[in-house]
């Protein structure tokens, strides 16, 4: 350890206070973790993960009705997330991905259907 005459680096109290203040701002923000605006998008990522896992599923086992519903609700909720106050960009992002995975599987179904019709 240094002796009493060794200069000490400046205190990081201001940095710690600023980071604590930012954390507190995030926690108490209108779209922070105390609100549904935070938790709804966080939980909705499970739908995206499920859609991505279905990529390896045979196309005949992919549900058309389910993917129509996912694509439609993803598009509707993505639009809605820009109409509410506060604007919820995380909700918009997850819903764009929900819509995209639904549309991807519908395109797979359509491609398989066209292949069987032409054969």
Automatic annotation (TrEMBL):
GO terms for cellular component: mitochondrial inner membrane. GO terms for biological process: pyruvate import into mitochondria. It is found in: Mitochondrion inner membrane. Keywords: Membrane, Mitochondrion, Mitochondrion inner membrane, Pyruvate, Transmembrane, Transmembrane helix, Transport. Mediates the uptake of pyruvate into mitochondria. Belongs to the mitochondrial pyruvate carrier (MPC) (TC 2.A.105) family. This is Mitochondrial pyruvate carrier. It comes from Cyanidiococcus yangmingshanensis. The gene is MPC2.
